[in-house]
Amino acid sequence: MTALPESTQRIAQLLAAAGHPHAPRMLDDAARTAQQAADALGVQLGQIAKSIVFRRKSDDAAVLVVASGDRRVDEKKVAALVGPTGRADAEFVKARTGFSIGGVSPLGHLQPPVLLLDAELQRFALIWAAAGHPHAVFALLPADLQRLTGAPWADVVQAA
């Protein structure tokens, strides 16, 4: 078995320290999109906890929305909760989170982001999140996501 990438090792250590029962798992193919991750895992698209990063205009803070893979983030709802936001480019995402787009984990960031959890994720018994690399994921319960991140559940997606 090949060693985990450094960014995934960081997530593995955080999960182990928190007593989380599921270690990161490397996929054969990249899971840069929620659909790719769902296909690789054989799960419903909504079970993928995708990480969408925005740039808050007032202070340049990273705003991370962890959303259900089958939902589209509503930027107006996010802005109503955290203030006006704009797009975050790949350089901003890497600098603030320590992860490349496609592998942004909900935890283990270089700089703690403003974090919101999509309440729609609670529809599922088991969800999957990125583990710091486009090929790495880990399983968790929605309640684990909140416990591990300390972030609030919010209405941040467009109506289904």
The geometry reads as globular
- In helices, the fraction of residues equals 25-40%
Per DSSP E runs of 2 or more residues, the count of β-strands stands at 8
Q: β content, as a range?
A: 15-25%
How many alpha or pi helices? 5
Detail the poorly predicted runs: none
Structural class: alpha/beta
The largest sheet, given as strand count, sense and whether it forms a barrel, is: 8 strands, mixed
Distance between the termini: 41 Å
Order of helices and strands: HEHEEHEHEEEHE
Q: Please, what is the average pLDDT?
A: 95
Architecture blueprint of SSEs:
Blueprint: H1 6-17, E1 25-26, H2 34-41, E2 48-56, E3 62-68, H3 75-82, E4 85-87, H4 90-97, E5 114-118, E6 127-130, E7 136-140, H5 142-149, E8 153-154
Parallel strand pairs: 2-6, 3-5, 5-8
Antiparallel strand pairs: 1-7, 2-3, 2-4, 6-7
Describe this structure in words.
It is built from five helices and eight strands, in the order αβαββαβαβββαβ. It is of the alpha/beta class. Strands 1, 2, 3, 4, 5, 6, 7 and 8 form an eight-stranded mixed β-sheet that branches. The longest helix has 12 residues, at 6-17. It is globular, with a radius of gyration of 14 Å.
